[in-house]
Structures are given as C-alpha cells and as structure tokens.
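Subject: sequence -> structure tokens, single chain

Hey, anyone have a minute? Need the predicted structure for the following. Not urgent.
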Amino acid sequence: MNRFVDKVIIVTGAGSGIGAATAKQFLSEGAAVVLNGRRKGRLEETARGFPDNKILIESGDISDREYVFGLVERTANKFRRIDVLVNNAAISLLGSFAATAEEEWHKIMRTNVDGVFYAIRAALPHLLRSKGSIVNVSSVSGLGGDWYQSFYNASKGAVSNLTRSLALELAPHGVRVNAVNPSLTLTEMTTVFQQHGPLMEKILERIPLGRGAKPEEIASVIAFLASDDASFINGVNLPVDGGVTASNGQLNPTAFLGDFGLS
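Reply:
Had a minute. Here:
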C-alpha cells in the first residue's frame, strides 16, 4: 500500500517497540517520517534501509516543551507540512500508590500527558492547514484500572479522554483525533512481565487470543486510523487487545466445564 505518499508524519517514541514499528509502517507506505526518541542510535536503527530524504531523526525528550516546539518547527522547515502526529512516547511504572515517590507521579505525567499536550499544541496549526490526523497511543490501562499501576492508569486515562474531547473540538476544522488502546504488547516496556514466567501465564489467561501483540500489529492499526481508509472514524479509543476488553471480568470457567457436564 502507498496510502501516505507525499504525507509528513511525526512519530514520538520511535526508537523501539510500537513507535519503531509505526515509523517503519509509514515509511514503507511512502511517507516522510520524523522519528523522535531519547536514544539517537535506536532511531537510526529504525530508519536503516529507508531513503535519507524521507527521514528526520530528532533525539530528545518530549516532556521538554521547548524541545517539542523546536521539533515541530524543524519538521515544517524541512518538509513544509505536517499531516499526521502519532503520540506514542510513554513510560510505565509498577508500584503501590502509597509507597511510590511523588516524583514518580510527576515523571509519568510529564512524559505521558505533558508530552502529548505539547506535541498537539505545537503541531496543531500545521494539522489544521493539512486537514490532518492525530493518533494517540493510549492503553487498555486508559479504559480501566490495573493492580498497582495507578500512576500509569491516570496518565493513560488522561490521554483517552483528551482524545475524545479534541475529536469533538477539532472535527469541524477537518482534523480527526483517535487513539489505539493496546493490551500486553511484546516490547521493552513489558519486559518485566515477559521475564516472569508465572506472571506472564496469568496475564495471557486474560487475553482470549492467548498471546501478546507484536508491535507491528499495533502499528498497522495506527496507520489505518491515520489514513483516508478511516476518514469517518473520529474520537475512537480502539482496543487492540486480543479481546481483553470484551470480558466483564468474571472467571473463565474452562477448567471446570466438565464438573457441570459442559465439556
């Protein structure tokens, strides 16, 4: 597919995981892509094999307002337009509410919420001109609560509801705003879960498809939402979760079906 020929796209957190897969997806479909992340070497790895004239590598911290506005200005100067903003950069935290330091709350919010806010504020004038699209990477953790992830839940809940509100506000101006809400995805961020065998087994029990997502499976949905194929989709928080949110949370009785003559 070549849905993004002549389009210019910013992807934050493009050095690994979902962000890297997303940047590659857009590049493979003809877009010029700005790759943001904190590790320049990882961004260069993402860009390897794609035309230099289609790439702008921007290493920096999206929680830094001046950096973000500068990134957008440099993008516009190089490519003369911005069509899509993908807010993917985020950090996670596992810990109890009472015992986790306040600074960790501010760190999570600076990256996961302020970074999204700054990027949208900076890019919006360009998106209004191009009648472009915003895709935020939220989480199923932005749709409901998790044990011992209250800080992360709060940040992703903010992203999910910001998506809805901006979709209402910007639609009359031709800008669509949507979010993807992945469940467990096999990235660096979830390594702590993947390396803990018993915990991983329990997590996978809650996913009807029985596995975690590959980053490319999330990237393809992001590209769909950003494309003209989704031209009438606006304000959606789309679970890409293997069926997790289809459940009301009650017990899966599979192991006990025989006891009731149902096997």
